[in-house]
Amino acid sequence: MATVKLTVNGKAVSADVEDRTLLVNLLRDHLNLTGTHVGCDNQPVRRLCRAYRRPAVKSCTVLVGQANGANVTTIEGIAKGDELHPMQAAFRDNHGCSAAIARRA
Fold first, then answer.
1. 16-26: per-residue pLDDT in tens?
2. Using CA atoms, how far apart are residues 5 and 2, in angstroms rounded to an integer?
């Protein structure tokens, strides 16, 4: 087991998980952030990375230990209050999928 500490959507989180746990599984299974999808491996992830103009990695390719100390933004984390971000609305309207975007603090 490993204790991982990171910031998810602006909030500090800590979890005890198996070393082989993928970041996407931590987000979905432990933090209940189910907007992040597993294995999308396609264009929406690259578009999301470019939209935020920051070096990023896909959560379905990163072990939690590699994300220790990282800032993670999920699709749930880009809204302003109760109003959907335009990207969220586009994903909803077009049945899009997203991956969480992680970057080092």
1. 999 899 888 99
2. 10
The edge-to-edge listing of strands for the beta sheet with 2-8 is: 11-17, 2-8, 70-73, 101-104, 57-58
Confidence of residue 29 (pLDDT cuts 50, 70, 90): very high
The rounded distance, in Å, linking the Cα atoms of 105 and 89 is 28
**Residues contacting 86, CB < 8 A, separation 6+:** none
- Residue 40 pLDDT grade (very low, low, confident, very high; cuts 50, 70, 90): low
Token reading at 31 = 């933090």
**Identity of residue 4:** V
Please state, as a whole number, how many other Cβ atoms lie within 10 Å of the Cβ of residue 101. 25
Determine the residue type at 24. Answer: V
Strands 70-73 and 2-8: parallel
